[in-house]
Amino acid sequence: MQWLCNAKDDVFTSGETLLAAVFLRAAEYGHLNVLQWLHTHWRGNCGVRLIDFAASGGHFDVIKWLHENRTEGCSERAMDRAAANGHFDVVKYLHEHRSEGCTVDAMDNAARGGSLEIVKWLNDHRSEGCSMVAMDFAAQNGHLNVVQWLHTNRKEGCTSLAMDGAIENGHLDIVKWLHENRSEGCTSSAVTEAAKHGHLDIVKWLYDNRRARFASSAMTIAAAYGHLDVVKWLHRKCSEGSSNNAMESAITFRHFDVVLFLHLHSNVKFDLPTGRTVKLPIELQQWVLTNYADKVSSWQFEVHKIELEILWH
C-alpha cells in the first residue's frame, strides 16, 4: 500500500483505483487499522459505499470513525443493510448521527431476519414503514412472533407468498396461524412444494384443512426427491394415485425404495417412456431390466459414477 500511495503517472492512476478498492474492502470487513493508515497516507475519495459496506457488516467502530473523520457519508442502503443483518446498534447510530434515513427495505428485511426488536424500533422511530413483503418474508423464514406483531401493529398485510413460503420451508405453526388469522391463503402449487420438500405433516394438514387439490404431480415430485413417507400417504389418501411419471422419476433419480413401493402397491400399469438414457446403480439397473424389460428395451443404461468408483477400486 505504501508503494501504491507513492506511485506516479500511469502507475499512480491504477494505484488510485486499487487503493479505493482496498479502502472499501477494509470498511466492509471491519479493518479499522487499515482505514486509519490509508486515511493518513492517501487522500482519495471512495463515495458513500464506505459506510454502506461497514453498516452491512455491523462494524460499529468503523462506522463511527468514518462518520467523524471522512466526508463521503453514506446512502439509505446503510441503514437498510444494518437492519437486514440485525445490527441494531448501527441502525440507532445512523438514525441519531446521519440524515440519509432508510427505505421500506429496512423493516422488510429486518422482518425477514426475525429481528423483531429492530422492526418495532423502526416502527416507533422512523416513518418509512414496510410493505407486504415484510410479513411474507417473516412467514417464509419461520418467524411467527414477527408475523403476529406485523398483523397486530401494521396494516400492510401479506400475500399468498406468506403461506406458500411457510409451506415450502416446513413451518407448520405459521401455516396454521395464517389459516386462522389471515385470508390470503396459498396458491395451487403449495401442495406440490410440501411434497417436494418432504413435509408430510404439512401435506396432511393441507389435505384436512385447505381442501387442496392433490394432483398426480405431488406424488411425482415426492418420488423424484425420494420422500417415501409422502409417496405412501398420497397413495393411500388420494384418488389420483400413482402415475407413470412417479415411477419414471423414482427410477431416474435412483430412489430404489420408492420404485419398489410403487411396483408393489400401485394399481397402475406403468407405461414408461421410450428412448431414455439413465445412470443407475447396478442393483437398480438389474431390477428394472428384470421387471420392466419390455418397457425399457430402448433405454440406454450407464453405470452410476459412485458404482464405477467402487469397481475401479
UniProtKB/TrEMBL annotation:
Superkingdom: Eukaryota
Coiled-coil intervals: none
SUPFAM superfamilies linked: Ankyrin repeat
This protein's name: Serine/threonine protein kinase
InterPro entries, per database record: Ankyrin_rpt, Ankyrin_rpt-contain_sf, SecEffector_AnkRepeat
Organism: Phytophthora megakarya
Segments passing through the bilayer: none
